[in-house]
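We close this part of the discussion by returning to an individual protein. The encoding preserves chain order, so positions in sequence and tokens coincide. The sequence in question and its structure tokens are set out directly beneath this paragraph:

===
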Amino acid sequence: MYKIKLVQENPKVGDIQGNLDLAKSYIAEAKGKGLDLIVFSEMFLTGYPPEDLLLREDFLNESERCSLELEELSKEISIIIGCPSREGENIFNSALFYQDGKVVKNYKKQILPNYKEFDEKRYFSKGKSQEIFEDGGLKFGISICEDIWNEDFTNEICNQDIDLLINLSASPFTLDKKNLREEMLCNYFAKYKKPIIYVNQVGGQDELVFDGSSLIVDSKDSVKRLKSFEIDQAVIEIDQSNISTSLKEDQLSKVGDISDIYKALVLGTRDYVQKNNFKGILIGSSGGIDSALTAAIASDALGPEKVNTVMMPFKYTADISVEDAQQLAENLGFTHEVIPISEMFMAFKNSLDDKLEPREFDKTEENLQSRCRGVTLMALSNNLGYLVLTTGNKSEAAVGYSTLYGDTAGGFSVLRDVYKTTVYDLAKYRNSLSKVIPQRIIDREPSAELSEDQKDSDSLPTYDLLDPIIEAYVEDDKTKKEIIDSGFNSDDVKKVIDLINFNEYKRRQVPLGIKISARNFGKDRRYPITNFWKNNI
């Protein structure tokens, strides 16, 4: 009987000694239980993605020093762990295999992703060999993350004389990723009849969230799953190619399952705040659905004692907005304050009156209100040491429905990659767990409340029309003609695409936020600001 421990953990990027200590604690526990092999995820020692830290000599030296410390620990248990390695001027994304007190083999990742959030060709050289690893009479192949998504690579390694394939991964969450992984691995098993062990990282790293969701695939109809969005571990036992584990089989969540999106946002928020040592967070609470959902996510991520909201009313703020913001705070149990901005607005306005062109009330006064709120939040942030969470969503970011240095002022954007229609779905989902967001917030027509009787629909198509147009243009790269031909009004499509193209300069200046979609604004979509190409087709 051969026993393997799988470790699904949350290593911290750059905390090499801390990640080593974490690995040591799992190894010590495994040795005490008579296990044969312990497997960690991709780039575990450095955390993933380390980005340009890999260009630092001292960073690589520290990683190598810590990797050597694992040799002594492998005298009683074999170890597979991800980390960078060097040969001359080349750096590799490696899986080190420790056995009997030394590194006996170093598998080097061969398929280097270089799209969307991945930049591996910037740092790593390509590995070339597919060796067979052997331990306790068990023969296995090793691959790293993207390797297994390549059919030619997988065909080559699975046609070798191996009993199973082990994949070390750091695969970020997107709406359909969990299902795609499982479908792919099940198809490989059906084709090659080789069990697959898939060990993924979990945790938030800047805008990325890693969902874990590690898998043991030894039957097309019987997949064992580790938890999603949580630290987890599992022990599997192999006896003559039969795999057993105490893990229970359960139903995989459906593509785009709203609970997965919510958990991703909670985990991403928690890790960004905690890993960067912020004392707490601060949110401008408008009585609208975006700020309400942001506050609920923050409360679930950090606890209400770390959440502080501020309502900043002006003459266009409805009484029900003030009431609903207060009710939200009472429901969730966090600190809430009301700071009117009328005097601040008038001070700015009076000092500028003789400098501005005389005209009717327009976006100058609208944006000035928003910037008063931004200044207020940032002053409180400086004073209290709290991180300001902005509350804008992907729909607004796409078309520039925001104020630079106003509602975009802050350090992290929870909803930056969440469409407005999904915001409503998430709010309803959160209320299905316990009703914390006042129903009136969900039912009201959205409004920025920067002018009399203002509604979002005064400036934009309704969100049920706007969001699919944005998705088609931004995520699917559809042409204007293709979008119109799919059934959308030509004037709406032209207006939305023009707004998306024009507002690239705004998106470059807003805080990073959690990625959940196939293509977010940021690393995934890098369009030039000064851009004379027009989509006129």
Notes: Residues 363-384 form the longest helix (22 residues). The chain has a mean pLDDT of 91.
